[in-house]
Amino acid sequence: MTVDIASQDAADPRFAALPGRPGKIIAIHLSYASRADQRGRRPAAPSYFFKPSSSVAASGSTIERPAGTELLAFEGEIALVIGEPARRVALADAWSHVAAVTAANDFGLYDLRANDKGSNVRSKGGDGYTPLGPGLIDARAIDPETLRVRTWLNGDLVQDDSSAGMIFLLPQLVADLSQHFTLETGDVILTGTPAGSSVAGPGDVVEVEVDVPGGPTSGRLITTVVQGETAFDGELGSLPAVDDLQRTEAWGSREAAGLPADATDTPSATDTPAKTGVSVNAGASASDRPVLAETPVLSDALRAKLEAAPTAGLSAQLRKRGHHSCFIDGVTANLDGAKIVGPARTLRFVPFREDLFKAHGGGYNAQKRVFDAVAEGEVIVIEARGDDTTGTLGDILALRARTRGAAGVVTDGGVRDFDAVAEIGLPVFSKGAHPSVLGRKHVPWEGDVTIACGGATVQPGDIVVGDGDGVIVIPPTLAEEVADAALAQEAEDAWIAERVAEGHPVDGLFPLNAEWRARYDAERER
């Protein structure tokens, strides 16, 4: 039997708003300044991914949120439809190759995003995930910088921006893509979404409109979310995995996602969403997850105090306050004289198991996400169960952490590429070098959760201090008090050392008896 594909496509209601079935759908990751500011990162150049033409849907269609998932996010966008084929076109000529403009909704399932990071094959390629239409605006009749995109969720306006607010203007996207391959007639370019993208659930109605204010419009592109009944089969591929990072980026903010404020968020942070947790507890809902108490920000002044205080003095002050399990045992620094201070960003490995490593060890796994997410001044703390017979990081991840401005890494496992890591200059406290890769003993499981490292419990946001004597963990609420007390004790010990150097016996001097105490206090007063 012969099938006339062309006539099939022409009659397919999914492509009613288009000249026909698009050969390619190219989407951009980040393009609006408002979205970049919301995400806390601004790209230097545009980057892209493909969506299949089978994902196209018409206005008035429904989209399924698959069973067992929670983060189906909408993204209102301006869509460009290519007219005359474009190959290596100049920027000045690029817009002439655009035949029409319409509205698009670049739906994405964030539950599947981590394992397809960047490619978005599964997270954005599902049936119905690219609604387009309902009408076309003649590109020849408009200025590409005057287009407006708006999105409504259940009648409430949630996105409102214009093409003038884009980091990369519309003709640039056409010219850039044409450098790499031919843009053919009917191809569609999704040009990114502004701030305000969020999550839609079953029963929600999302509407997107592209127009020139006071001029032509695409009309409202309407999509209704319905609940799917079929779950994904874990025997065929990795299952959905929801975590606080994906929740934050899907909803747009921690607050919108119903998550507690992150103590490490500061106005000067370089990547706000990246400090939100990267746990990969598959199937866990927000209500199932432990909520950690808010912790105070590590100020510059407090950091300076902790950098001046030795871990020996800090640990002594913790013991005075009843904290006897603050030591991360068995780790030493890779750099002589290294001192690290910073809030903890945690990462947990579980023992190697073939099926679990297959599902969680490859791709953009929890280990990579933590190193990509670490913020300036933070310390990555890794639970490796004290197993030093394989590496828990190597030179590439160390370089990434160094580039991100991490204060250092603490692991109760081994370090691969030990000499190269040292040359990078990232302070790493570990149990030593080992040449083996991660998959020999570990599965990267989750981040930003409470862990055990070297016999110490470490929570995200705990203050980690390390020097030549070792590494300790300080509860954030005690950090200021302990730092002040340790520095005061350091000053007292320095005074005692001077007296010992003068020839005085340590009896009664160390520790100070009443007579020596009075003398010390008097000199301190002066």
Automatic annotation (TrEMBL):
InterPro entries: Fumarylacetoacetase-like_C (IPR011234), Fumarylacetoacetase_C_sf (IPR036663), RraA/RraA-like (IPR005493), RraA/RraA-like_sf (IPR036704). Residues 24-225 form the Fumarylacetoacetase-like C-terminal domain. Its cofactor is Mg(2+). GO terms for molecular function: catalytic activity; metal ion binding. Residues 260-274 have a biased composition (Low complexity). Mg(2+) binds at residue 417. Residues 253-282 are annotated as: Disordered. Keywords: Magnesium, Metal-binding. Pfam families: FAA_hydrolase (PF01557), RraA-like (PF03737). CDD domains: RraA_family (cd16841). Substrate binds at residues 394-397, 416. PANTHER family: ACYLPYRUVASE, FUMARYLACETOACETATE HYDROLASE FAMILY PROTEIN (AFU_ORTHOLOGUE AFUA_1G02370)-RELATED. This is 2-keto-4-pentenoate hydratase/2-oxohepta-3-ene-1,7-dioic acid hydratase in catechol pathway. The lineage of its organism: Bacteria, Bacillati, Actinomycetota, Actinomycetes, Micrococcales.
